[in-house]
Amino acid sequence: xxxxxxxxxxxxxxxxxxxxxxxxxxxxxxxxxxxxxxxxxxxxxxxxxxxxxxxxxxxxxxxxxxxxxxxxxxxxxxxxxxxxxxxxxxxxxxxxxxxxxxxxxxxxxxxxxxxxxxxxxxxxxxxxxxxxxxxxxxxxxxxxxxxxxxxxxxxxxxxxxxxxxxxxxxxxxxxxxxxxxxxxxxxxxxxxxxxxxxxxxxxxxxxxxxxxxxxxxxxxxxxxxxxxxxxxxxxxxxxxxxxxxxxxxxxxxxxxxxxxxxxxxxxxxxxxxxxxxxxxxxxxxxxxxxxxxxxxxxxxxxxxxxxxxxxxxxxxxxxxxxxxxxxxxxxxxxxxxxxxxxxxxxxxxxxxxxxxxxxxxxxxxxxxxxxxxxxxxxxxxxxxxxxxxxxxxxxxxxxxxxxxxxxxxxxxxxxxxxxxxxxxxxxxxxxxxxxxxxxxxxxxxxxxxxxxxxxxxxxxxxxxxxxxxxxxxxxxxxxxxxxxxxxxxxxxx
Length: 493
Ligand code: NAP
Ligand code: MG
Hints:
- This protein has helices at 41-58, 63-79, 81-92, 96-116, 155-166, 180-193, 207-216, 229-242, 264-276, 296-309, 328-342, 378-381, 397-405, 420-429; strands spanning 7-9, 12-14, 21-25, 32-37, 123-126, 132-140, 143-147, 170-174, 200-202, 222-226, 245-249, 254-258, 286-292, 346-349, 368-371, 388-394, 409-410, 412-416, 434-437, 453-454, 472-480.
- The protein is α/β, with parallel strands linked by helices and 493 residues long.
- The protein has two domains: 7-250 and 457-476, Aldehyde Dehydrogenase, Chain A, domain 1 (3-Layer(aba) Sandwich); 254-437, Aldehyde Dehydrogenase, Chain A, domain 2 (3-Layer(aba) Sandwich), CATH 3.40.309.
- The strands form six sheets. It has a seven-stranded mixed sheet, sandwiched between helices. It has a five-stranded parallel sheet with strand order 9-8-7-10-11, with helices on both faces.
- The longest helix is centred in the first third of the chain and has 21 residues, at 96-116.
- It is globular.
- The termini are far apart.
């Protein structure tokens, strides 16, 4: 059978013009999963051309009709949920329970975004003149460039592309090099759902050969990026010079705050899930716990015991609780930070690769906990993006909030307490885009805005009731039906 994994440009499945390819592998086993086009700027140019042509007619398709295609896509994804989840676990390692959740976000987002097709509300307001009508309407912008990471390889493209398309834009999509197959499934779903040719174009390849040309291409007006702060800020600088709109979702260093009146069993469950779910590779993962000094030792012991007991393995095995890291580079980063952490705190769990038996074939690292770490220690401040947790003693909620807000990131935070007054104080004072009370730092729902402050983002929010903001312009429209010239600010005095 010929290789099915090709770029999707103008409704056709095509190889890179250069003919070059790269390989996709399973991080749990090392198995080769497929060969994908290693595209270049010339392929991006083809995709932008197709998207520009398609935009001329797609923007004129009534939004409720565009939405019907999204509903159909949602139904196809729902029918294929299990197949997609299995493919995702094979491709990037997280457990089946988690990949099912990732696909479910795609379904939820398809229905939510499709609903916008019958809303897309604008605003009417009275004119200051008689016999004159005034309103403002959302309009699409043009061609959107979507650049996505590997950790939510179905959900994140859904958050970006579904709102962009329902609003009437067309798109060029570059997925992460570690998860090309999920992007291929995503495009196939939309092809089957009946999306017109050229509305969604998929170009596989590296950040420098495909991502960068997308940012630079004058035919692309909006860039929606999720990934590291380093790459995001570089994109922001370049796009800023070119006058493009950019929506950025970047790194995190998310804290769970545990006060001395908290339910420690509940806090332990939540911390273990937030810190080690997706092997710590969630942008909202809990990577530090700011815990009241009176309960620090008790909580640290509970968390370390649970971390040690977590079962590592291939995410396709139902007994597995923690899958591999996505690639060897991620393992090296974790190793580097654990070496640093050994000098900064007490290692109470993990601290090494897991290599026995079948684990030796994959990128496995033991869930790692450092207790009694200073708030300014590197493992308590820098994003590691792996299964490493730092626990820091605090004396009060106020001190914890201060430490939380001093982070260069501001995505998610959580508070455990039974005191409603302190809960409301924290909800007001924690300067993150997402705040949880008596719940860990992960678990966003698609119908609420998603994103963060400071180094995490640049003021945009994905999903939720804000989903259309990055992908639409406001157009103000005045209709004068008086039959004579009425000059605003002049003739009404
Ligand atoms: P990354 O290296 O920044 O990659 C993200 C995407 O950008 C990938 O598609 C990558 O392509 C591409 N890229 C790399 N260099 C580029 C360039 N010069 N120009 C344009 N595109 C370029 O991030 P990652 O390591 O894959 O993902 C982990 C990071 O994402 C973490 O920092 C995490 O916190 C963050 N993240 C944030 C959120 C959020 O919503 N806030 C969600 C998930 C992840 P290649 O894959 O081909 O290199
Ligand atoms: Mg892979």
